[in-house]
Amino acid sequence: GAVVSQHPSWVICKSGTSVKIECRSLDFQATTMFWYRQFPKQSLMLMATSNEGSKATYEQGVEKDKFLINHASLTLSTLTVTSAHPEDSSFYICSARPPGASGYEQYFGPGTRLTVT
Amino acid sequence: KQEVTQIPAALSVPEGENLVLNCSFTDSAIYNLQWFRQDPGKGLTSLLLIQSSQREQTSGRLNASLDKSSGRSTLYIAASQPGDSATYLCAVEANSGYALNFGKGTSLLVTP
Question: Across the interface, which of B32, B44, B99 has its CB nearest the CB of A103?
């Protein structure tokens, strides 16, 4: 099946610094990738839709200047958490779906655990 | 706005039991529904995907059903094993290419 990777798998950073998380589709091209956030014991909440070659679409309540998304190529989207604060500590997961016929599953990356101290 | 609800929030059963996890969604106009498994601190593993035109899907000991008109899906796990212990998430896709809308999950513990 299709594979989506994320890097790093976990990161600890100090408050006020920026952190970049990469999401790659390894064996397919994805014009659209999704970024989700999951707080402890909560479900996944969509943060933004990353579109190759254009600006990301952010969900209501998600600060676009804080969570910078760059879909640099058809296989790579990056999420940069700028000026991170402890409340940004969360599990960040990306997903993508191979293009083609309808009904395909969305494939999720393994997630990135961010801890801001 | 689509809301996805999963019941129960947590479930503990002895090994060998058959069990049913429930998922309901408020807007029946969905494209497909997926069931995922999430182990603690890990990412998602897709278990089953049911397209809106289908009524059920089976994989091994897992069977998922979909009643789109009533906004419900069930995940049936037969002969549960301790290795089945995880959180099970239900998610709906409103239209092709859209993001998924997730429920909060059912935390399952299967005791030996």
Answer: B32
